[in-house]
Amino acid sequence: MASLQAVTAFFCGQLGFDHFIYALRMPTRLSDARLIMIDGYPASWVAHYFAQSYYDVDPVMSYCADNVLPIEWHNLDLQAGSASARMMEDAARFGLKSGVTMPLHGPNGELGILSFGADRADDAAHALTKQALPYVQLIAAHVHDAIKRLHGLDEVLERPRLSKRELECLRWVGDGKSSWEISQILNLSERTVNFHINNATTKLGATSRQHAATKAVLQHLIRPHPF
Question: Is Nucleotide-binding there in the keyword field (predicted)?
């Protein structure tokens, strides 16, 4: 991990940036997540960020949750006076005045980022972030792959294999349907529906049918019907 941090710090400097951070958030349940970080940001800013609960209003994280392309911070859509705008102004006071972030998405709902930041926000800094875009994408892919190998995440995040019927039943559980209602929708007996739901609950290591449906959504095993 230390060598990976050193390599990332080297590329950060080579690209002309002052700071960097890699973070990977892996949901374990709706109210919690596992976080892995390679931290090259000012320690005072990281402590301040968590103390202020800035992750709730972070415009960079908000962008990354819905996008796959890198974002230059000066191109973020910020409303003047908003909590997100104030957070970015606060970050600038800690030496993060401009930068670029690459989103990284995984198959089980993981969200990762690699950010490079600079302690300046002039035209030269904006030109720097634009020039760095293709390199940031390449570096992010390699750092993310290295993290997965170092932490064995490919094995940890391997999804259970659920049958088509188990997935169908869980999807309707997620919609609040009872076993009897699901049996009418799928033209199955109520006993068969319960059999599939119980199997899915066991495979997912869940404690209830609702918990199983939630875990299936978090792991992208079930999605809304297209129609």
Answer: no
On the CB side of 198, how many CA atoms lie within 13 Å of its CA? 6
Supply 16's token pair: 């002309």
Is residue 37 within 8 Å of residue 157, measured between CB atoms? no
Fold topology of 164-219: Arc Repressor Mutant, subunit A (1.10.10)
Q: Which ranges of 15-122 does DSSP label H, i.e. alpha helix?
A: 43-51, 59-66, 83-93
Which CATH class, in words, describes the domain spanning 1-151? Answer: alpha beta
User: CB-hemisphere CA count at 13 Å for 95?
Assistant: 13
Please tell me the distance from the alpha carbon of residue 201 to that of residue 193, in angstroms, as a whole number.
Answer: 12
> 88: which 2 tokens?
């970015």
Q: What is the pLDDT of residues 90-141, one digit of tens each?
A: 999 999 999 999 999 876 677 899 999 999 999 999 999 999 999 999 999 9
**Domain boundaries defined on the chain:** 1-151, 164-219
Mapped onto helix, strand or coil, the DSSP state of residue 113 is strand
Tokens linked to 225: 């019907």
User: Over the range 95-130, which residues count as b (16 or more CB within 10 Å of their CB) and which as e?
Assistant: bbbbbbbbbbebebbbbbbbbbbbbebeeebbebbe
The continuous run of DSSP H or E covering 101 comes out as: strand 98-105
pLDDT tens, position by position, 129-159:
999 999 999 999 999 988 888 877 665 455 6
